[in-house]
Specification:
The chain has 1 helix and 12 strands; from the N terminus they run αββββββββββββ. With 216 residues, it is an alpha+beta fold. The protein has one domain. A hairpin with a 7-residue loop joins β10 and β11.
Amino acid sequence: MVHKSNKKLGFTVIEVIIASMVLALTMGAAYKIFSGTSMGFQRSTKVLAMQNEMRNGLTFIREEMQRASYRSEIKVNGSEIEENGYEFHLCNETDIDGSTNKILAKWTICKPFKRDNSGAVYECTLRISDRKILYTKTEKETKGSSEPETLYNDKVVMTQVGKIKFSTEEFTTGTSNQGVQVNIETFAYNSTKGQPDLNVYAQTGAKIEVKLVKGF
């Protein structure tokens, strides 16, 4: 005897729809996890890049500021130092918005003029414009075989600057006054549509061994 079976092979339409819905939900959840992880990674990468730029920029600024010096000439019977016109000038404002366009500081870097007539004077300017900190170093006077400096014309030291703050304090060594420390605080931010703003903060201090004057 031959028995015929009425059981049908394959999936019903309802089963296919349910399986498709489960797959769609699974893929949606996986995409959200991937997207969140990717955005978190991109955010961390941007923050790290901003921090590195700020640290490198402040290190560069501090090292250049600390080289501020008077013009001096070494003679047989001693040294002659010229102070007037070689002071360190710092802007009057202590809290400056990054979107402004103004000079922040001006100073000179001087290499002593020796008997062989070698020596040099360089004028330095730090300014802020359109959320960028820019540095310029130009040659004012050189003589003889003095080793040349690297010159800059609006070198971009830092970007995405939201605000920069200055403060000053005297620093001493032992019992004698050795100059002024210029404290610099920078606040940077990055705004991307649809994402939380990124905010980064950094600070440094430059020891200035020439007379500091507020204003230009």
